[in-house]
Fold:
Amino acid sequence: MSFRILICVVALSALATSQRTAERGQAKPISNQLQTEEKEKQCPKNWFSYKSSCYKFIRSPVKTREQARAQCMAYGEGSDLVSVSNKEEHGFLTRHLHENDPLHRQWYTSGYQKTPNFWENEGDGTSFQDMMEAILPNQGSGPDRNYLAYSYSDKYKEWGLLMVDGQDTLLYICEVPQANLNMLIDESVERSHEYGIIVRDPRKVPKGPKIITQPKDRMFDLARREVINYVSVMCLADGYPHPTYEWFKEAFENDELVAKKIDPLADPRFTVSGGTLIINNPRQVEDRGKYHCRATNEFGTVTSESIQLSFAYVAEFNWKRSNEQGNQFWGKAIYCDPPQHYPDVQYYWARDYFPNFVEEDRRTMVSFDGNLYFSYLDYIDIGHYSCNVKSTVSGIGKNGPIFNLEVNPHPNYQQLKFANNFPKAFPEAPVRGVDVRLECIAFG
Structure:
């Protein structure tokens, strides 16, 4: 009898041990299942989670109210414009807008006026009866203002719901219940290495245009028109398909800067070849100014930096000028009186004949502005002088009229003093990285 009881106890103990082992063995898959369900409830990239819903704040492209709702519904079953169902949800949305929209733009919701003074969320059909405080006060009334959009009130310093007609293109907020995430169609889903198409030549990867060679300022030398009677500007962009190019001239119309497209068919002087603009027989009055190019393919358009087309010239000197005179042992400044020119010119002073240039020494200096200075005159300075200029961008130069310099005897020396406007700096308002020339001369 005792032997039978022992066998039963052992059998029951083995059965209990087997059940506990089975329960422990089943605990792991249950835990994994809960983790999987929790992971599935996480909102996708660019969606924000709050309680049992995911929200997406769409900034671009802006849409009308009906277009915005259609876009939200296109994400999948259960997705719609946001339904502001309670004060807690309203607080979450306004906090997000306060932190992420400093420009205070307007955002469509699914709120609409179903019947006069009765508002409802079109997304989930919930009533707005308990949410009337979220609507901004003192809005007046309008027959077509049947929709609600979040807007910032400068008067009340807070976000609230504004009555709108739904025709304006605004930003909008989409909402989807987390229970429907498995049916969500979202463009932000992470892509695997299998996404896309195979392109073996990296130069043929589809992409929008990008300027790789910016055009540079050009200057046409009017004095060399008989040799080179055209000017060209190059603009180069990368992209695939290969971009096409257009050139524009910038001009002011009614105090507004506009870009006028250059049409080679309308003016045969212009040629656009690839990204190069060629202007034949340039005209100083019509063609000077700023230009830019645009490169376009099916993926977009890019605009280059603006460049300046200018014309280099050196006009003629006055035919005659009066003679100059000064006292012996006194300082003297002789002004060049150069002709009109663009851009800068270099100055050369000649004495008695050309090209017998005046040599600079401790007593004589040719300033960067073209004036000839003597710290004191002596009889060896008597002679025939002329100021001559040469363009800094071409070999063209002009000779000034010849005049006499006479030196009169004087019993006294001039007291030491700086010449007028010295010291001088060229340029007068230098910028960092630019060479500066400093000049100083004293009379006496």
Notes: The two ends are 145 Å apart (CA to CA). The helical segments are 2-40, 65-73, 87-100, 284-287.
